[in-house]
């Protein structure tokens, strides 16, 4: 019997196949998903991992067993699954482990309209049902309820068409674009989305291969964008884009091959969205740069600060009617995309902004990248709570310093801020620091790390 506490995370299911979960459990998850969502029909998609097709089929069988009709959309990105859930108004399940190594797989689930399913919105109930059924056997359909039908549908062209109605690139200047798909689902979606646009595409690692033969599909790790940076510099391209394994996140490098911080992308896209919907709210998590709320206010919008994590972002988007939301991890959320995250739509915004004026990308984003940041620094510590308490004690009561604990510990001064958060899944403390200059950022970073690692 699988230990579901190890594979059911805060927002999804994720674990090693077949060691931690397998086809039999996928079928139980499908049945539990239908029972909890009370769905009469669902949509299911999967990435390019070797285990994804048979796991997703098993999930569909479990759903159909309880009477739900299943639409299989096959190979897709996670945001393509969200599109299908929104357009078809059906609960959905995406089989992917995002950027995790090849032996992993998982399920990202949503209700109709791409509404998130997390621990507080159905995932805990799904886990409980799977645990019960793993002991007693799979459930039987209700009396008189026929088994659901399973059919197939291709939504890739509809997905691409929808994105292109949201950002107009037809009049931009021609751009040379290097895209590193990391052998992930960007290799499936980018050619269709970019087709016919004034973009010269240089494709890196577009072959779908869930064993990731070239590098991990995790652009958050600087080691995984080295090839992209080199190709941009060698070819003199205007921009480089890197997608993660399920292509819901997009990272950007400029014409020099230098990474553009996701906070700068958040600010740029926020300005563009506010131009078409003045006065709207824009969501940002508490680790995004000071520049994001500054730009939002300058553009007449209302910045709304939230905890880290897509369930919090999406909840605030729904509550406030926000037009856009961004996270430091390169997740970008759009009201026009059912409040779901789509790295592809963010990429189209960046391409439109770049191609709509003559300057290189490094100059365009400079106005949105105003401060010195440390990036996320992880420290492995066994006593997370104790080390965090020591940091709090060191800064509490200092003149001109404010503390809040919305998500971990955030300490703010006039010239700098930092956030220290515990990982939900590992014995790690994650530190992010930002300051008005590099020297101050480095000094604050070193002071906090000295306490954390004492």
CATH superfamily of the largest domain: Alpha-D-Glucose-1,6-Bisphosphate, subunit A, domain 3
Structure annotation, total helices: 15
CATH topology of the largest domain: Alpha-D-Glucose-1,6-Bisphosphate, Chain A, domain 3
Question: What is the total tally of β strands?
Answer: 22
- Structural class comes to alpha/beta
What is the 3D shape?
globular
Helical amount = 25-40%
Overall number of structural domains? 4
Largest sheet: 7 strands, mixed
CATH architecture of the largest domain: 3-Layer(aba) Sandwich
| Mean pLDDT level | 96
**CATH class bucket of the largest domain:** Alpha Beta
Radius of gyration, whole Å: 22 Å
Low-confidence regions: none
CA distance, first residue to last residue: 40 Å
Percent range for β-strand residues: 15-25%
GO molecular function: intramolecular phosphotransferase activity; metal ion binding
Keywords: Isomerase, Magnesium, Metal-binding, Phosphoprotein
Cofactor: Mg(2+)
Protein name: Phosphomannomutase
Describe this structure in words.
The chain has 454 residues and is of the alpha/beta class. It folds into four domains: 4-155, 3-Layer(aba) Sandwich (Alpha-D-Glucose-1,6-Bisphosphate, Chain A, domain 3); 175-259, Alpha-D-Glucose-1,6-Bisphosphate, subunit A, domain 3 (Alpha-D-Glucose-1,6-Bisphosphate, Chain A, domain 3); 262-366, 3-Layer(aba) Sandwich (Alpha-D-Glucose-1,6-Bisphosphate, Chain A, domain 3); 372-452, 2-Layer Sandwich (TATA-Binding Protein), CATH 3.30.310.50. It contains 15 helices and 22 strands. It has helices at 4-7, 23-37, 52-65, 78-88, 123-136, 156-166, 186-194, 226-235, 262-276, 291-298, 310-320, 343-355, 361-366, 384-395, 438-452, and strands at residues 13-16, 41-46, 69-75, 92-95, 104-111, 115-116, 150-152, 175-180, 199-204, 239-243, 250-253, 259-260, 281-285, 302-306, 324-326, 332-334, 372-373, 377-380, 402-404, 409-412, 416-422, 428-435. The strands form four sheets. Strands 1, 2, 3, 4, 5, 6 and 7 form a seven-stranded mixed β-sheet that branches. Strands 17, 18, 19, 20, 21 and 22 form a six-stranded antiparallel β-sheet that branches. The chain is globular. The model has no long low-confidence stretch (mean pLDDT 96). Its cofactor is Mg(2+). Belongs to the phosphohexose mutase family.
């Amino acid at each position: 019997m699988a230990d579901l506490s190890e594979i059911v995370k805060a927002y999804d299911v994720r674990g090693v196949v077949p060691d931690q979960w397998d086809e039999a459990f996928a079928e139980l998850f499908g049945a539990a998903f239908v029972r909890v969502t009370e769905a009469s029909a669902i949509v299911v998609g999967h990435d390019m991992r070797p285990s994804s097709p048979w796991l997703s089929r098993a999930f569909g069988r479990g759903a159909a067993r309880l009477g739900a009709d299943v639409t299989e959309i096959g190979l897709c990105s996670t945001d393509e699954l969200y599109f299908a859930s929104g357009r078809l108004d059906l609960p959905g399940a995406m089989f992917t482990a995002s950027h995790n190594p090849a032996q992993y797989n998982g399920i990202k689930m949503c209700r109709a309209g791409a509404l998130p399913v997390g621990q507080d919105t159905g995932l805990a109930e799904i886990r409980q049902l799977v645990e019960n059924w793993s002991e007693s056997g799979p459930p039987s359909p209700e009396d008189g309820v026929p088994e659901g039908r399973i059919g197939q549908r291709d939504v890739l062209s509809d997905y691409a068409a929808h994105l292109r109605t949201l950002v107009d690139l037809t009049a931009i200047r021609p751009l040379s674009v290097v895209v590193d798909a990391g052998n992930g689902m960007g290799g499936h979606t980018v050619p269709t989305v970019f087709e016919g646009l004034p973009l010269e595409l240089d494709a890196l690692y577009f072959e779908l291969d869930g064993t990731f033969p070239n590098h991990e599909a995790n652009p958050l790790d600087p080691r995984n964008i080295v090839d992209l940076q080199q190709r941009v510099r060698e070819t003199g391209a205007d921009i480089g884009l890197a997608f993660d394994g399920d292509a819901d996140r997009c990272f950007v490098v400029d014409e020099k091959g230098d990474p553009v911080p996701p906070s700068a992308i958040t600010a740029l896209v926020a300005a563009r969205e506010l131009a078409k919907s003045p006065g709207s709210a824009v969501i940002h998590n508490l680790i995004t740069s000071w520049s994001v709320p500054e730009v939002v206010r300058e553009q007449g919008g209302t910045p709304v600060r939230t905890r880290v994590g897509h369930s919090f972002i999406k909840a605030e988007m729904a509550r406030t009617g926000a037009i856009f939301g961004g996270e430091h991890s390169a997740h970008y959320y759009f009201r026009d995309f059912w409040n779901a995250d789509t790295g592809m739509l963010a990429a189209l915004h960046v391409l439109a902004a770049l191609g709509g004026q003559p300057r290189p990308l490094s100059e365009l984003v400079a106005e949105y990248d105003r401060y010195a940041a440390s990036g996320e620094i992880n420290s492995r510590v066994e006593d997370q709570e104790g080390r965090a308490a020591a940091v709090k004690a060191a800064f509490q009561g200092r003149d001109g310093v404010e503390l809040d604990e919305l998500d971990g510990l955030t300490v703010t001064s006039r010239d700098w801020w930092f956030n220290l958060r515990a990982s939900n899944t590992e014995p790690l403390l994650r530190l992010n620091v930002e300051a008005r200059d590099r020297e101050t950022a480095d000094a604050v970073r070193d002071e906090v790390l000295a306490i954390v690692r004492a």
